[in-house]
Amino acid sequence: MTSFLTSRRMRGGLTGVAVAAMVLTTAACGGTTRGEDEGSDAGAEATASADPDAEIPADLAFAFLPKQLNNPYFDIAAEGAESAVAEVEGELNVTGPSEASASSQVSYINTLTQQGAEVILTSANDPNAICSALDQARSGGAKVVTFDSDTDPECRDLFISQATSEGIAQAQIDIMAEQIGGSGQVAILSATANATNQNAWIALMEEYAAEEYPDMEIVATVYGDDEDEKSFQETQGLLQTYPDLKGIISPTTVGIAAAARYLSGSEYKGQVALTGLGTPNQMREFVKDGTVTAFALWNPEELGYLAAYAGAALAAGQITGEEGETFEAGELGEYTIEADGTVVLGEPTTFDADNIDDFDF
Amino acid sequence: MAVDTAPATPAGQAPAQRPQGPSRLRLLGTGDGVITFVLVAFLLVAGFTVEGFASSRNTGFLLLDVVVIMLIALPLTLVIVTGEIDLSVASTVGLTSAVMGQLWFSGLPLELIIPICLLLGAFLGAVNGFLVTRLGLPSLAVTIGTLALYRGLAFVVLGDRAVADFPRSWTGWALSSIGTTGIPVVVVPLLVLVVLTGVVLHATPIGRSLYAMGNSEDAARFSGIGVERTKFWLFVVTGAVAALGGIYWTLRYGSARADNAQGLELQVIAAILLGGVSIFGGSGGLVGVIAGALLLGSLRNALQLVNVPSDVLNIVTGVLLIIAVVTPQVAAAVRGRRRPRGRPAAP
């Protein structure tokens, strides 16, 4: 009896698994969803040639996939995308992982492919890990626009660059040089050690500083991993390690805010200059209390807005992503596609006590 | 006191009408049937109600997301059945990925890199096994340590770099599917390993000895089971299989990075516990574990398709896991209360 019961239980389990396998297999064989077959045609069509006068179709399905959700920077970019999508009468779906690891975006891209998204706006956590997923999305007919952090150029249609990397690097070094008189020890507080854009800027900053300000010495680069507490501690560590430090550059919004918070409550306030990339709302109090004189940033809202318009232009067939093509981006005006399918938003804006109250993001 | 239920009453003496013999029941995994039923029910409901769930492409996406979890769950189930744990598996994946990237970068052929990585995994597992079985340290503490240690080493090896120029033929294979079914090719070798593990766990003396260790290590030792030796080799195998997972992970994402698979250990353990394996060892079965992994994967997939935000997804997974762990405890408590009342009827 015992053996009968237990083996029945086991048989029940095995049958269940067999049924599960069958369900999966039948699911695998049948069933068509939106985008699955209409997609491949669309993809083939669009690659034909650009028609600058094409209308942007209404009800385009836009997806906004940031590096991670609940990140203030991407929330603002999403707002920009939201207004652009509203202007072209499309629909926007904001989705994404809760942690910014290399592969965490993949299953979200797969989901978007499955849902038949027509335009995907994304900032890549890793330039390669999401490539094959994006390929599948594109062969399903989606147009892929990366912004903020690019993928391998082969895997997307366009990249919206927040500013040229040179422009960003030079703006920060120039602000710092002005504040410390062009000489002295400077340290960099970055985000994670493998952030593509951070590393590119840091390299360019070092290069530009060496050329323009030979007396400025970049003594260290530390990583706050875009975590408030870690960035705070790293700032503390820098000031202890380098007693002669004249300034800190933090090209990340989390880092600069944490560093400003540390400086404003320490003896170094006003003694050690701090600049970098920050948002006006985060930095307002530190500019007002004199901890920070000036910092830079492009407007992430405009970045999201431009990315959405670029996606709309691609989906409409106004552009194909070739160098030299132009498109209209609503109130931002006309943009031209540069080499490698890159569109540059513009020069970064410098924020200081005079203009910070004009911005709310 | 239900003392007399546990000892070795010959099976024949047990009253025929009562499914006694808790140890035999445990052998086959009490949770298997329930969790498999839940999985089937969920697949049916999702298939009919969630747009885009039941399609070949989505099946492929779903399975690709769970293969590594399932793969590592196989040896880890055995480890957990013996009452131990290995939390370092995801870090082993990361370190293997980093080493694989570094070796590829330095010009070695993949045919050589893969065996090196597997050996590395076995070695990392052996370190765990040595610390646990030779030095007698608790596996929870040891593998929390090696979780940090192996991940740290991964960053030493590859730093902030990513190696991504693996040959298309290999990375393409990692993603390819069988014909037009959408089922990834890699499911085939995985199934072989599933069957192999299932046979070892449920149909060999080794498997029975694992349950014995999980139920009572001393009793197992007195009955002549080489507890330390078996556990040591379990850790070695777990390391090697995690390395295999690391190799596949690297090819599947086409990117070798030190932070690959960060946090994966929790997903693997979640699948195992959801599958009805007791975290204290001694009970559970492989069928349940496979069903648990598939259930977690398809749940996430379906919820994503209906645009449930990732934070809510984590909450759902967490709640589900707690239910899975609590239910058998409650059931046991209920059984425990009933037993004394039923007792007088027994001869």
Describe it for me?
Chain B: This is Autoinducer 2 import system permease protein LsrD. Chain B: One of its GO terms (cellular component) is plasma membrane. Chain B: It comes from Blastococcus saxobsidens. Chain A has helices at 2-29, 38-46, 72-87, 106-115, 131-139, 165-180, 196-212, 228-241, 253-264, 280-288, 300-316; strands at residues 61-65, 91-94, 119-122, 143-147, 158-161, 184-190, 216-223, 245-250, 273-276, 294-297, 326-328, 334-336, 342-344, 349-352. Chain A is α/β, with parallel strands linked by helices and 361 residues long. Chain A has two domains: 38-163 and 300-346, 3-Layer(aba) Sandwich (Rossmann fold), CATH 3.40.50; 165-297, Rossmann fold. In chain A, the strands form four sheets. Chain A has a six-stranded parallel β-sheet with strand order 2-1-3-4-5-13, sandwiched between helices. In chain A, helix 6 (165-180) crosses helix 7 (196-212) and helix 8 packs across helix 9. Chain B has one domain (25-327): ABC transporter involved in vitamin B12 uptake, BtuC (Orthogonal Bundle). Chain B has 347 residues and is mainly α. Chain B has helices spanning 22-28, 31-49, 56-81, 89-105, 110-134, 139-158, 168-175, 187-203, 205-215, 217-222, 227-253, 264-274, 286-305, 310-342. Chain B starts with 21 loop residues before the first helix and ends in a 5-residue tail after the last helix. Chain B has 14 helices and no strands. In chain B, helix 3 packs antiparallel against helix 11 (227-253) and helix 3 runs antiparallel to helix 13 (286-305). Chains A and B meet through helix 1, helix 4 and helix 5 of A and helix 1, helix 2, helix 3, helix 13 and helix 14 of B.
